[in-house]
Specification:
By secondary structure, the protein is α+β, with helices and mostly antiparallel strands. It contains five helices and six strands. Strand 1 and strand 2 form a beta hairpin. Helix 2 runs antiparallel to helix 5 and helix 3 packs antiparallel against helix 4. The mean pLDDT is 87.
């Protein structure tokens, strides 16, 4: 996730962040979206021999609640090992539990967010190329409208947690 998005939209300010990876999981676009403009969102699924790259953030319990609230009720919190270049951590992550391994297309907007964050966080070129291969959809005007709606929807859910503190 983009550091700017994490701070400006979700109101989460990590104490520390480092590149890491999760072994035996794969990035899947298999969380069904709310409509045909956003048909699928990212998830991770167990897949022996695969690897998911990302950023390990040290955040507070309140900040984790903000992320959970802004992601929605579909996800569950799991503790899984994350490997950095220095050590192994047991970390909490959100996974949408499903038996479905079928990949859905995602919006071009959403895929571009994933690619931008991967580059910003200096994930491997091989992993970025893997993300770029995901199927996308784009509907002129509707996709642009939904981009604005999604931004405010996530921001309002994170703010609601902020207001209840």
């Amino acid at each position: 996730m983009s550091q700017v998005y994490l701070e400006k939209v979700r109101y989460v300010y990590p104490k520390k962040s480092t590149v890491g990876h999760i072994e035996d999981y794969a990035l899947k676009i298999n969380l069904k979206g709310p409509n045909f403009v956003e048909p699928g969102f990212a998830n991770i699924s167990y897949q022996k021999g695969s690897k998911v790259e990302g950023i390990l953030h040290e955040i507070s319990d309140v900040e984790l609640k903000k992320i959970i609230a802004s992601e929605g009720p579909e996800y569950e919190v799991f503790e899984i090992p994350v490997f950095t270049n220095k050590k192994r951590f047991l970390a909490k992550t959100l996974i949408w539990p499903t038996e479905t391994l079928e990949e859905l297309p995602t919006s071009r907007r959403y895929l571009n967010l994933l690619i931008k964050a991967a580059k910003e966080n200096k994930l491997s070129n091989e992993y970025i190329e893997e993300i770029k291969m995901k199927k996308t959809v784009y509907y002129p005007f509707l996709s642009e409208y939904y981009k604005i709606y999604a931004y405010f929807w996530v921001k309002s859910r994170a703010r609601k947690v902020n207001d209840n503190i």
